[in-house]
Amino acid sequence: MTLFHKRLAIVAFPALMLAMAGFAQAATAEDAGKSIDQTVEKTGTTMDEAKESAGERTEKTGSYMDDSAITTKVKAEILGDPMLKVLQIHVTTTDGVVYLSGEVDSQQSIDRAKEVAEGVKHVKSVTSALVVKGAK
Description:
By secondary structure, the chain is α+β, with helices and mostly antiparallel strands. The chain has one domain: 2-Layer Sandwich (Histidine-containing Protein, Chain: A). Helix content is 66%, strand content 17%. It has helices at residues 3-80, 107-118; strands at 88-94, 97-104, 125-132. It has a 3-stranded mixed β-sheet with strand order 1-2-3. Strand 2, helix 2 and strand 3 (125-132) form a beta-alpha-beta unit. It is rod-shaped and about 125 Å long. It starts with a helix and ends with a strand. The mean pLDDT is 75. This is Hyperosmotically inducible protein. Keywords: Signal. Residues 66-134 form the BON domain. InterPro entries: BON_dom (IPR007055), Lipoprotein_DolP (IPR051686), Transpt-assoc_nodulatn_dom_bac (IPR014004). Residues 40-64 are annotated as: Disordered.
């Protein structure tokens, strides 16, 4: 091997090694980039799913709170009505539908309780299971 070849080998070998290392790093960097992209995509999907789930829970909770508020308002209106305040009328609300149950002293009381409940804001409908005392 001539001196020229030795010098070429001394210069070329490290250059070749650096080039190979660069390709390896480029491949590694590309793989890392792909991995990061995939992780970001999965995280975005997970975040979207979490937002949807949180929105559904909020919607359900909001509905429950609205139903609770409607029930409270209907009970207050019934207690504030001179014709109904002494009667035992049970009120429950599900998805804006008010359910009245219990015993009252006349058909007029049933009609009035339904009218009062229907007049409360956000009530979608009223279902009555009220019965007249002693009626069979």
